[in-house]
Amino acid sequence: MIVNEKIAIEHGLKSDEYKKICNLLKRTPNITELGIFSAMWNEHCSYKSSRLHLKKLPTKGEKVIQGPGENAGVIDIEDGDAIVFKIESHNHPSFIEPYQGAATGVGGIMRDVFTMGARPIANLNSIHFGSPQHKKTKNLLRGVVHGIGGYGNCMGVPTIAGQTSFDSSYNGNILVNAMTLGLVKKNKIFYSKAAGLNKPVIYVGSKTGRDGIHGASMASTSFDEKIEEKKPTVQVGDPFTEKLLLEACLELMAGDSIIAIQDMGAAGLTSSSIEMASKGNLGVEINLNKVPCREAKMTPYEIMLSESQERMLIVLENGKEELAKKIFDKWNLDFAIIGKTTDSKNIELFFDDKQVANIPVNTLVENSPMYDRKWKKSKLPKKNKIKKDVLNSLKIKDVLKKVLSNPNICSKKWIWQQYDHTVMGDTIQKPGGDSGVVRVHGTNKAIAASVDSSAVYCWAHPLTGGKQVVAESWRNLISVGAKPIAITNCLNFGSPENEDNMGEFVECVQGIGEACEYLNFPVVSGNVSFYNQTKEIGIKPTPSIGGVGIIKDYNKMVTMNFKEINNIVMVIGKTEGHIDQSLFARSILDEKNGPPTRS
Amino acid sequence: MKSSVITFPGSNCDRDMDVALNKFGFKNKMVWHNDNELPKSDLVVLPGGFSYGDYLRCGSMASKSKIMHSVINFAKSGGLVMGICNGFQILVETGLLPGVLLRNKYLEFICKNVHVKVDNKQNPYFKNLDKNIFEFHIAHNEGNYFCTKDQLDEIKDNNQIAIYYCDKNGHTEEQYNPNGSMKNIAGIFNKEKNVLGMMPHPERMIDQSLSGEDGSLFFKNLINNLK
């Protein structure tokens, strides 16, 4: 197939992006190469609309071992221990196929964490659905909850906290954000930077199939009425294989065989091999005939773009191949030497003894597009004047009943009881409180984690909303007696090509940045999910903040339940009587305008 | 006292069980499913998890593992074998225990504390316990015990029902049944009472900071009974 502009556009590239590719290569790419460019240059992988703004977030701190740019962030929790954590979105696939979409979201984020050598010790999630009355909501909620449980429970990692909300802006685009925390020794952290020439490149895990091809590209566009046709772009998860992969990787990591390791997530073999080569400033040569395939007659294009789950790419030390193979054989996983590192600084692919792609790595990474999108600033809305007689006509008991039974406030026990939250025997604060808390196995320390978002505030005034979410995360951590350390963020927005949506993004990020700066609460990892919209209708801006804190002595942890009769109840902080954007204003007074509470 | 915990591919409560057994004085060994021989043991535990991903039927593939020949022989010669959750599912698949474990009645995974009533103390597991009602923790998708009417008559006649789901006062009405199990059955013995299978996880209740301490009572008593 001869590549032309039309085919490039079908791959989600813009006309000028296609021209840029031809200029960089000084020729027309072949179809495999075009597929690789489209995978690396889409919004999901390249952060082309967000990079400029994300640079402004504070990412450094005394406790930060690794900030954004790796598979996950890493913080120091003293005594030689570190916590690896990250949150990631799986919104688009979960709307198309809720069980598999949510399950593979959980699987993907756990791989990001154990790729770095950490054993996952806790999962969290932030899930957002359309109106409870909407015809799709019930099925999506059930599917997503089953999917999260199905994967996390089988992996034997407790799901310790989460957040669920309902709002009609998610009717056509639900949000599924999954977060994982892992525990690692500070001197045993693994990174994705390849190093050294002629080192074997190893493929381990499941076989490659045709599932998930163009998954990352699909997540970089809006939905329309043809959404059902996109089902084949959703990956299918196998948590059993991932459990084996986890144990096998940790077993191999106990020794000194690995130079670099990277999971095959979005854009599969393409992004993993290119990122490892790019970070190491090296080239890589891969023989695609060596890649274990699940289906017959897969083409180089399909092998490179498949998003089959539960796969890892490893650069090994020379001479460690046999040892590594023995471990993966023990766990019944595929193991194949598929290539080597080179000094060409190109990615070179071979298939049936022919070269099928040859692209300079830097054209895919450093030369990827970056946009300074147009955006609109939001004004702080005027305060509402609520009439006394309206308030006087309300009976406080009825109002309380209505507010407490609102789906956004009521108990979410039905959800979290379907997640194994006690496996691993270290969960000392279960879901349902301000933060989940797990002990650092075998020590007196504990880690608190919470995931928060407040789309209504961010929608009313993105700058204030962005600050408010960070403050909420901070409060949830200190409420259990933890000292907050750092956050990860998952930034869910509409189309960056729309000035209003882009404005929401820019100002929410600014608000998050200001609050993090003020609180010394750095951002160590995260992801951006744009195009959460069906046709022209976007979601409310929904940055999710995953906060992590430490409790030095878990016996001093605080819980929220009232302990005894006659205990004194206190309110700390000033009650200013701010009502706009409260659940009360929105659901009882039916007043949707006004500013959010300031923080 | 020596114990062995078998790790199958997909087991995920093996470490928790190891922690619990060691905490209460067992010298525990982890045993790989592909091994041929059990180490010398006073107790063998099949832990919870998702052996072989729970694919095909929960426990069915693990029941055919290499090590299981040795476990079955050990049980048949009177050795103590305890299966928790997935371990219980594996034990019914081997035929060491009667019946099957179906999908939970409401088709959902359940993770919560429940109360169970110990009915029969004429056995090495519950002998000498000074209370009858325990708060344990369950976490499963397939814990709905089912057997034929003849089997049920037989296990009743032989006092093989180990524990029932109940409320904190020991009432065993249907409303205290979390998963639809026949007769609220949460655990059963073989005829000889040396093999025990149960859905609840005592190993998750061994510390005041966890879900509770009734698991500690269980393990302390168990090791004393074996001494």
Number of helices of chain B: 5
Describe the main β-sheet of chain B briefly: 9 strands, mixed
**Helical residues, percent of chain B:** 10-25%
Please identify the top-level CATH class of chain B: Alpha Beta
What is the helix fraction of residues of chain A, given as a range?
A: 25-40%
Q: Work out the helix count of chain A.
A: 21
Number of strands of chain A: 21
Beta-strand content of chain B: 25-35%
Q: What's the domain count of chain B?
A: 1
N-to-C SSE string of chain B, H for helix and E for strand: EHEEHEHEEEEHEEEH
Summarize model confidence as the mean pLDDT of chain A: 94
Q: Name the shape of chain A in a single word.
A: globular
Question: What is the alpha-carbon Rg of chain B in Å?
Answer: 16 Å
**Biggest sheet overview of chain A:** 7 strands, mixed
Outline type of chain B: globular
Mean pLDDT score of chain B: 96
The end-to-end span of chain B amounts to 7 Å
What would you call the structural class of chain B?
alpha/beta
Strand content of chain A: 15-25%
Q: Between the first and last Cα atoms of chain A, what is the distance in angstroms?
A: 57 Å
